[in-house]
Amino acid sequence: MAGFQYFVASSLDGFIATADDNLDWLLQFDGFEGGRESYDAFMAGIGCVVMGGETYAWLRKHQPDEWPYPGIPCWVFTHHEHSAPKGADVTFVRGPVKEFESDLAADAGDRNVWIIGGGVLAAQFADAGLLDELIISIIPVMLGGGKPVLPVGRPTTPLELLSSHSMGRGVVELRYRFGGRA
Prior knowledge:
Elements: E1 4-11, E2 15-17, H1 24-27, H2 35-43, E3 46-52, H3 53-62, E4 74-77, E5 90-93, H4 101-108, E6 112-117, H5 119-127, E7 133-139, E8 147-148, E9 160-166, E10 172-177
Parallel strand pairs: 1-6, 1-7, 3-4, 3-6, 4-5
Antiparallel strand pairs: 2-8, 7-10, 9-10
């Protein structure tokens, strides 16, 4: 059965973007030692990607001529009208994430579902009891505010640390398992 994973980078103070969706703080770390290997190993296990409408719009604005997930089904939870890039397998949906659990798992097949973001969408999966793992790369900068990494509606049960490792430029990757699904 497909697992639901939230693979994300966060500032040391818990934000995935500034309030105005600026990622310059993160992009300055492109190419850090171990980052590409971690991403490639993660992507080898992904069969479906899920994102919110704001994340989708950001991708289309910043990469208008390139779709970063060719050959992978993508689901976008949105309240706005969007168009899909030519040749991309993109499905636009509205509604509670729980309603789409079996469809997402079916698209992932024997691989995992990556909840790309944003944090609000990932929190909806967590609040619905659907999030299996949080894989978070802590970037050694402070933003002082912005979009929280996982703004859940209530406290979670303790997460189980599965692994941690240091990578280049002071980045630390932590992998946690959520309780309740296994």
